[in-house]
Amino acid sequence: MKEAAVRTALPFWLLMTIVWVIVGISMGRAQSMGLYLPPVTNALGVGRETFGLAMAFSQLMMGLFAPVTGALIDKFGAGRIVAVCLLTTICGLWFMYAATTGTSLIFSGVLMGIGVSGTGFTSLVGTIGRLAPPEKRMSAIASMGMAAGIGGFVALPAMHLLIESVGWQTSLLWLMAITALIIPLAWPIVDRPVAAAGPVRDQTMGEALSEALRHPSFLLLTLGFFVCGFHVAFIMVHLPAFARDQGLPAWVGPTALSVIGIANIAGTYVAGQSGRYLEKRRGLSLIYLGRAILFLGFLYLPMTPVTLISLCGALGLLWLATIPLTSGLVATFFGTTWMSMLFGLVFLSHQVGAFLGVWIGGRVFDVTRSYSAMWWISIALGVLAALVNWPIKERPVARLASPVPA
Q1: For residue 198, is pLDDT > 50?
Q2: In angstroms, rounded to a whole number, what is the distance separating the alpha carbons of residues 140 and 363?
Q3: How far apart, in whole angstroms, are the C-alpha atoms of residue 291 and residue 139?
Q4: Residue 397 and residue 342: Cα distance in Å, rounded?
Q5: Mean pLDDT, rounded, for 378-405
Q6: Which residues pair with 194 in a beta bridge?
Q7: What pLDDT, on a 0 to 100 scale, did the predictor assign at position 218?
Q8: Closest C-alpha to 236, from 205, 262, 257, 208
Q9: Which of 110, 219, 355, 378 has the most crowded CB, counting CB atoms within 10 A?
Q10: Rg of the chain over CA atoms, in angstroms?
Q11: Is 193 helix (H, G, I), strand (E, B) or coil?
């Protein structure tokens, strides 16, 4: 079968660069918000659960709106949708800057989550899937995960230094300015699909949703991605505080998160290439099982700067490596016409997991004064995700006349 073509005036390499910059800055900022947990809670006199709930709502809104922004991008192209979402992110940052109560923090989290839903890798995965040649699609999607990793690697130390030098409130003004500067980059992204000739008729959004929700392997994939969100969000928000609780210097937490970001670049690249040699479902099972094993180290190894940073380096290899494999499976199942929307559904599950990971992490700590229970929950969920992904059937739906390259 022939997939939908894309009409675009810019060369692929330039469009990819633009998407990398937008994804890198957006995801780098989103991954770094845990740095604000200590100063914001101290300034407002609220507990970690309150800040965790605000960030949990951010994760949840990111997931709830991902299918919506994805569907809009699939239908109208990415440019205008991305610009609007960047403006929404700025509003969310302003609410945190002006916050005086926990309620203001929650409003901030909601707006930032909606903003990232249209500027992160999730919403733009369909754009790249349509722009890339089929044989290069999975590698191109993997590069978006690498861009997110680079964004985190740069943003974490930069934001840490910014907070330390100018204070947490002024640092948020800087983040607003940086976000505003990338709005013009969104306009040249044109990826509106054009119907292609072929034996497969155009599929409506409703038909695409119905097909996906009745597909057993898609449902298993979606369930497994819930665990990915739980793991990633819990660690990104709570790891800096966990490091301080272990009596480690203030620089260790941000450094460990930066190491996750740089290791993620290699891990995501390898995952993007692995689809040529290993079934994607097997790769996902190995990633989740590997995470579960590494989490044991946070419970049983002595927490020194070297230990924590080393564990995070190994964890970074498995961090966003799930993205090219998961999105590649969505493309394998259904093609790329509604890919942003359908991956947005998978990502919704991811963000429900993220909501619970961030919120329960704060709740568990406030009740027990320890994160030990959270590490055990993360281990159990990692094993569950490994088992859930194993029986996935890696083939296109019967509607497609021939396999869709991923």
Answers
A1: no
A2: 39
A3: 23
A4: 14
A5: 84
A6: 5
A7: 94
A8: 257
A9: 355
A10: 20
A11: strand
Q: What is the pLDDT of residues 288-299, one digit of tens each?
A: 999 999 999 999
* Residue 102 backbone dihedrals phi, psi, to 5 degrees: -65, -30
φ/ψ bin of 124: left (φ > 0), alpha (ψ from -120 to 50), beta (otherwise): alpha
Residue bearing tokens 């929307």: 341
Phi, psi of 331 (to 5 degrees): -65, -40
User: For the chain, how far is it from start to end, CA to CA, in angstroms?
Assistant: 14
Residue 115 · residue 92 · CB < 8 Å: yes
Tens-place pLDDT, residues 14-36: 888 888 899 889 888 887 887 88
Examine the pLDDT at 197 and tell me if it is beyond 80. Answer: no
Distance CA 264, CA 14 (A): 23
Q: Rounded to the nearest 10 degrees, what angle do helices 322-334 and 252-274 cross at?
A: 40
Give the closest residue to 138 by CA, choosing from 277, 22, 267, 276. Answer: 276
Neighbours of 19 (CB within 10 A): 27
- What is the number of alpha carbons within 13 Å of residue 118 lying toward its C-beta? 27
- How far is the C-alpha of 56 from the C-alpha of 54, rounded, in Å? 5
CATH topology of domain 9-188+205-389: Growth Hormone; Chain: A; (1.20.1250)
pLDDT for res 191: 56
Q: How many residues does the chain have?
A: 406
Alpha carbon distance 146, 123 (integer Å): 16
Buried b (16+ CB within 10 A) or exposed e, 142-167: bbbbbbbbbbbbbbbbbbbebbeeee
Structure tokens belonging to residue 80: 């205008």
**Which of 164, 124, 91 is closest to 24 using CA atoms?**
124
The Cβ-side half-sphere exposure at 153, using a 13 Å CA radius, reads 18
Distance of CA 399 to the CA centre of its chain: 30
Measure the CA angle with vertex 283, ends 354 and 276; round to 5°: 130
